[in-house]
Every structure is written in structure tokens, then in C-alpha cells.
Amino acid sequence: MTTETAPTPSEVPTPVSAGPSGRSILQANLRDYGLVVALLAIMVFFQIFTAGTMFKPVNLTNLVLQNSYIIIMALGMLLVIVAGHIDLSVGSVSGFIGAIAAILMVQYHVPAIPAGLLCLVLGAIIGASQGYFIAYVKVPSFIVTLAGMLVFKGLSLAVLGGKSVGPFPTEFQLLSAGFIPDVIGPITLVAPKLDAAGKAIVGSSIVLHSTTMVIGILIVLAMVFSSLRTRARRRSHGYDSEPFPLFVVKTAIIAGLVLYITYLVASYKGLPNVLIVMSILIAFFVFMTKRMTIGRRIYALGGNPKAAQLSGIKTERLTFYVFTIMGALAALAGLIFAARLNTATPKAGQGFELDVIAAVFIGGASALGGVGQVAGAVIGAFILGVMNNGMSILGINIDLQQMIKGVVLLGAVVFDLYNKNKA
Amino acid sequence: METTILEMRGITKTFPGVKALSDVNLDVREGEIHAIVGENGAGKSTLMKVLSGVYPAGSYDGQIIYRGGEVQFKNIRDSEHQNIVIIHQELALVPLLSIAENIFLGNEVAKNGVINWDEARAGARKLLAMVGLKEDPDTLITHIGVGKQQLVEIAKALSKEVKLLILDEPTASLSEKDSTALLELLLEFKKQGITSILISHKLNEIKRVADRVTVIRDGRTIETMDKADISEDRIITSMVGRSLEDRYPDRVPNIGETLFEVKDWSVYHPLHADRQVVKNIALHVNKGEVVGIAGLMGSGRTEFAMSVFGRTYGQKISGQVLMNGKVVDTSTVRRAVDAGLAYATEDRKTYGLNLIDHIKNNVTIANLPGVSRNGVLDDMAEMKVANDYRKATNIRSSSVLQLTGNLSGGNQQKVVLSKWLFSDPEVLILDEPTRGIDVGAKYEIYTIINKLAGEGKGILVISSEMPELLGICDRIYVMNEGRIVGELSGDEASQEKIMRAIVRAEGRTA
Ligand SMILES: Nc1ncnc2c1ncn2[C@@H]1O[C@H](COP(=O)(O)OP(=O)(O)OP(=O)(O)O)[C@@H](O)[C@H]1O
Ligand SMILES: [Mg+2]
């Protein structure tokens, strides 16, 4: 038990916002920090037990590529869960969209960009139609999306005629397999060692993708600048913010991590295209949930639908929008997955919904709605992804992998509840 | 002869960032009715939760001595085993279970896990008779009013052979008649030797039934008064730390032309399409006027207000709403708000607040455009708004970032009020605005109402406390069974006249 502030006696005027003290900020964010620490710990664990494979540039790049579609869907799922709903259909929908993309591009030779856009619109329409039943007809989302899951699973099979369809045109594959071009040109950090025959030994050199490096540094600068500005703004309005040393340490750690990862990625092939798409989406969703009125309204809706409605929030339309967004993101994920495999298979996307939902809950969202953070969902997805990746490298059997993932999910939620009860 | 049944010594309870109780002492004598009073957030409910094991031993400091020995309750069951029963501020009945099922919930009349329904029903009937409730034990809780639900709670307490009964604001949402019945019941229990602890903001009730009163302020015991010393003024002085000259702030009304008008308004029950709940109501509010709607519980006042405000209640709604003489569309909450209406609900937990979010976000949610630009929120502006209202309505909290779910009942009410004040309406409909609010804070809320009226806004107050309506309104409508049955100007209105209007109307329909 902490003893901090005694209640203000009624004679003394209450101070204008005794903002939370540094310690309580730390406490409030304990979970967020805990999540990051857990992710790092898991990565270090595998780094040690996979004899250094985990942090290899090629592996990190793979990690991003392998998990991009889960993360992208987790963004939408976070909104769905915060709004107090669930979407079980995202896996099937993403598989179905992959199938449609294949039919369009492979069989009808529609160019990649219009075909991709068409698929995104189709995904949004699918989300919207499920959202219609949930928001306006008031069928519980569990049931609507369970039905959707079955329908779209069946539809993918039907569309593909039970066969795999591929390969995709090269420009479509770039979505998953491409990297940004190095417009500045590579920098050789360590020249390759030559073997006796005068040929370079593979892996002995470090050549940096400099465009990636520049982008990474710019992002770090922008981050530091914006957090300094926010801090100054809070101060100028007389609100407490976290103590300066804590702020410096936190910013330094985050900046260091981003720089290190940039460096690693740059020493492989540079920034994957997917990572760019993903980062922009993550940034947008963070902004939307934290700073935009629509985000605030979604939290209010999940926290108490009746009160939200009586506060003038158009709860039905908002629910409808949330599912529409989810549909579009599931479509995007389906495209990325199809591009990655370079074929559309009838089984694509199956079971993705479980990973996506698990990521959001590991990230600290509440099954009752109204609580959850985008950053949490993303880190939750990475935790699952790192575990998949690390356990595969270690050659752990798939059955054991499933069990371990299940235990981690349960453990994360139990940890949450324990924390909440202690407060 | 008087033995002490309960002694709480040096109780200190801390929540993160808030010290709710510090070194509180309370002693209760066997067979008395002991009242606990104090401002919103003073720590009354917390103290009772400590006593009943809601906050287990170890989570607080201090000692509880009950019937001669120290007790350490780990949960509510422990305290129930010692025949201490608490009825919380927010009722804890399961709405879709029957009265009998609720009474014996967790305490079923069962053998080997099989419930004996005949015996349960018979037992329930006996208990209901004891509390004077004439209802079939099979009736679902949702189908009876709050007053009766309160009695079911008490029947439930009796089923546990209660020795010490704790009631946290039992009459806050009861009509005058139901309150009286409940207080009678407490006096009856007293004769049977049951000790009661009663928390209430209704000082007249306390004066009527309490043998002794303990006053708590800012988490500390101030004093305990004996029967002879109990007077409303004395209690108030002790509660707020200064004397309160007037219960109602002065105001010189400056009433303008008609601002808000409802014509021929009819509403039917949402489930029973043939039951008319609101019957051809016509009323108006002028600029700068405070208008009251008096009536008994269930007279259709809340239903009327909610149906006007975005059709949030009922079906087959007909009639017209006019603002400044022009017909306006109030068919959704958004439209009603845009038309200049606001409705602060009487039911803060169900309709008023997002309990898992903090004060700031609750205050701004009905007027996000007021703290944003192009859909992007300005968090500093939000903080300022929230802090301003926290100060204006005197919300007791660690900061505006405290979760509303952790606020005391009265402070939650103030958050609901702040939210609608910030929406800056032309006409503000307040439904039981001071329910569960302490005398000092009531005065502040009346002051705010007066200020709004002074700015030329129209205020429509629904209240079951007649003295309150008489104290603040320029005009009072009397409503009964969905109809307006009287209209009185502030000067001529009196409690008797209001009651007479109601009785006359009942005579006519009977
Ligand atoms: N779970 C909690 N977490 C944090 N603070 C809490 C919690 N419960 C109560 N408090 C704080 O403790 C104080 C006392 O609250 P309590 O509910 O006991 O007040 P009360 O005297 O019953 O007021 P009211 O008359 O409004 O019901 C308040 O400041 C409240 O905000
Ligand atoms: Mg209370």
C-alpha cells in the first residue's frame, strides 16, 4: 500500500490538478513497460538458446515479414475488442481475399494495383455487411462473425475450386518480398575479407543500406523532438510529467532500440516494403485511439454503451465503422499473406483469428470492452511472433508450441487481473 | 445497561493516491440505530466496507472489536457468519431472477445441492411479510420498483438472522412514502433487538430515527452525538466544518420569453405497446426560469424526459418539441443536443458514466467538438475543462485522472452533472440532480443552477424531494401517472398543495 496524498481538507481549496506524481505515472505504465520488457526478455532468451540466430539481420527481417499480417489485423481487432465486440471471421476473410486476388491477377490478368484496391474495397464491404448485422440488427458479434468465418472459409474453397492458384505477377510479390530502393547507395562499413582465391567470403562484410539508415535516424529524431515538445507543453500548462531522469532514460532506451534495429535491418536488405505499410498503419492507429475524437468515442462505447448513447454518440454507426475498418485490414492482411506465399491456397488464413485475438489480449485489452492500447496489441503480436519464430528455430514440436502459447496467453491475462486487484 | 456491540478503532484505509480513512473510531451500542453522516467522499461507504469484510483484514490498519472480541474478516461471508449484513449503496440484486431466488442467493434452501422450491417460497413469503412487501416471491426483480427492491434486500438480510444491519443510503432513490415505510421498519427491528447502522444524506430522516450520530469528515471521525444533541444544524456544522446559513442560495429571477416547449407529448411503454406511460403532456420553460416537475416515483417524469431527449425511452412517441418557438427534431440524442437540450440522468451507473474511464474523459465526452479541432483532441484544453468543472462542482478525487468507478457515489453524480454543464445547453433537464449528494454540495449545485438561469438558460428539474423543488423553482408542474395534474407558481407552491394535486388526480382516475 502506498501512502501519498492525504485528502484535501474542505477549508483548503483544492490545488488545480495535482497531476499524477512520477511514481504513480510509473505505476500506471508498469504494464506497458512490463510488456516491452517481456518482449525483450523473450528475444534475449531465444538469442541465447538459438546461439545468436534471433538477432541476426535476416531473422529480424523475417520476423517482421512473418508477422506483418497478424499485426495489421491486430490493429483492427483492437478497435473491435475495445468497442466491446469480437471478430472471429478475420482469418477466413483474409484467406478469401487472397483467393479473390489470385483469381483476378492470375486468371483474369488484372494489374496488381487495381486488383489490390478492389480487394481492399471488397474487404471493407465484407466488414461493413457483418457490421450491419451487429450494429443495426443487434445480433451479437460472436454469432455474426462465427457465421462469417464459416461462410468465407467455404467461399475461398469454392472460388479456388479446392486448388492453389499462383504464382502472382512480380509487382504484386513486391508487397511482401520487396525492399525499399537504396537511393543513396550502399555504404561499406567493413570490407569483405577475401579468401585465398581472392573472392569475398559471404557474411564477412557489413554493407549498410544507407537510405534505411537515414530513415531510421530521421524517425528517431522526430520521436525525440515530439516527446520533448509534449513534455514542454505539459510543463507550460502546469502539469506534472514524469521526472526528467526517467524521461531521459526512457527516451534513450527507445531511441537506442530503434536505432539498433534499423542498423540490423539496414545491414541486411534494408527496409521491407511491408514494414513501411505496417509502420504507417500503426502510427495512424495510435494517433486515432489517443488523439482523435473517433478513438475516444470507441472507448466510451466499449466502456458503457448506454451512457455513450446518451452522451450523443452514434453508437450504431460507430460499431458499423469499426467492423468496416476491420474488414479492410483483414483484406490487406490477406493480400500480404498471399503475396508472401506467392499462391492463394484454400487453407490460407485459417486460424489467424486466434493469433490476432490472442495478441490483443496479451497486449492488455479487456474482454469486456473499453480497455486496450494499440501499442500493447502490436507488442502482443510480436511476443507471439518471436515465440513462434524462436521455438521453430529451436525445433520445438508444433504441439508443444501451441501449449506454450496458450499458457502465455493465460499468464498475461492473469498477470493483468492480479495487478488490477492489487491496485 | 448499554453494551457496546461494535467498536472500530484507529481504522486507516489507503487507496493508491487517496487516503480514504485515517484513524477513524466508531462505537455502536447494542440495539441502537446509529447514523453515520459526512460529505461525499468523506469515507462512509469505505468504513462500512472495511467493517463487512469487502476490504479484507490486512488491507487496512486498525482494530474491529465485535461483541467483545477482535474480529478479522477476510470476506463478506465471514462477517455474515457473525450476523453482520450490509446493504450497499448500489443494490446488488440479480435483475432476471425472482424475488425468492434473490433472497436465498448463496444461501439456498437446499439439500445435497437440490433446491427445495416450496420451502424457499414459503420462507420468502414469511420474510416479505416481515418487511411489509406484498409481492409474489416468483416475481422477477426487474419488474418491481427500486423501493420494493430495497425491501427485498432487507428481507435477504433478515434471512441471514442479522444482528447488525448496515444500510448505505437506503432511501436515496426511494419516494417519501417508501422511505417512511423503511424507517418504520428499522424502528421495528430496533424493538426486536437488531442494531442498525444507517448512512444517509437526508438529515430529517436521521433526526427521526437515529439514537446517535457519528460525523465523518475527510476520512476522520469528528464527533459522535447523543440523541438529545441531534439537530440538523448541528449535524451540518459538524459535517462541513462551518455553519450553513441557508439551504438554498438567493436569486432574483429574471424571466424572459418562452424558450422550450413541449406539446401534446405521448409515449408508450417500450415493451407493452398498449400501455401509455406519458399522456398528452404540454409544458414550457422560459428563458432564465427554473421549472420543477414534482410527482411520486413512477409518475412518468424520467420517461417523459428521456423520450424527449433523443427518444431514449419508449415507443410510438408523438408530440412536438419547440425551441424559441420553432419546432425542432429531437429524435436522436445527437439531434437533441444540437437543438440545445441536455439531460443529466438519475441513474449514473447505468446511463451516466463510463466507470472504467477517468473523470476527464467522462466530462468531455458529450462535447468532444468543444475540445478538439478537425477531429483531433487538444489534451491540454481537455485537462483545463476537466479541472475547471472539478473545482466548480467540488469533485473530491485525487486528480481528474481518477477512474469514476472509484469515486464515492455523490462525486460520481457531480461528474455526470459536469458533463452536461460542459455541453453548454440552452435547456438543461436535471433528473434527481442531488440524489446522494451532501448538503454542502447541494448548495453548490443550486448555485450553479442559478447561475445558468441568470445567463438566460432554461432549467427543468425533476426531483422527488419536494423541499428542494420549493426551494429553487420559479414554477412547479405536478405529474401523476403520466399526466400533468397541476401547475403552481413558486410563491403559491407548498408541499400540501402538491400533495393535494396528486391525491385529487388519483381520486379522479380511481
Ligand atoms: N477503489 C477505490 N480506489 C480509489 N479510491 C477510492 C476507492 N474507493 C473509494 N475511494 C475514495 O475514497 C474516498 C471515500 O469514498 P467513500 O465511497 O467511502 O465516500 P462516501 O463517504 O461513501 O461518499 P458518498 O456520500 O458520496 O457516498 C473517496 O475520495 C473516493 O474517491
Ligand atoms: Mg457512499
Polypeptide structure, described:
The complex is a heterodimer of chains A (423) and B (510). With 423 residues, chain A is mainly alpha-helical. In chain A, 69% of the residues lie in helices and 2% in strands. Chain A contains 16 helices and two strands. Chain A has helices at residues 22-28, 30-49, 57-82, 90-107, 112-135, 141-160, 170-177, 210-236, 244-266, 273-291, 293-303, 305-310, 315-341, 352-362, 374-394, 398-422, and strands at 187-190, 206-208. Chain A has a two-stranded antiparallel sheet. The longest helix of chain A is centred in the middle third of the chain and has 27 residues, at 210-236. Chain B is built from 17 helices and 24 strands. In chain B, 52% of the residues are buried. The model of chain B has no long low-confidence stretch (mean pLDDT 89). The interface between A and B is large, with 47 and 58 residues. Bound molecules: adenosine-5'-triphosphate (ATP) and magnesium ion. Residues 15, 18, 20, 38, 40-46, 89, 396-397, 406-411 of chain B line the site of adenosine-5'-triphosphate.
Mean pLDDT of chain A: 86
First-last Cα distance of chain A: 8 Å
Oligomer: heterodimer
Structural class of chain B: alpha/beta
Low-confidence stretches of chain B: none
* Shape type of chain B: globular
Range of strand content of chain B: 25-35%
Tell me the helix content of chain A: 55-70%
Bin the helical content of chain B.
Answer: 25-40%
Assign the structural class of chain A, choosing from mainly alpha, mainly beta, alpha/beta, alpha+beta, or little secondary structure: mainly alpha
Ligands in the model, by name, code or SMILES, are: adenosine-5'-triphosphate, magnesium ion
How many DSSP helices of chain B?
A: 17
User: How confident is the prediction overall: mean pLDDT of chain B?
Assistant: 89
N-to-C SSE series of chain A? Answer: HHHHHHHEEHHHHHHHHH
For the record, give the distance between the C-alpha atoms at the N and C termini of chain B, rounded to a whole number: 52 Å
How much of the sequence lies in strands of chain A comes to under 5%
Gyration radius of chain B (Cα, Å) is 24 Å
What is the number of helices of chain A? 16
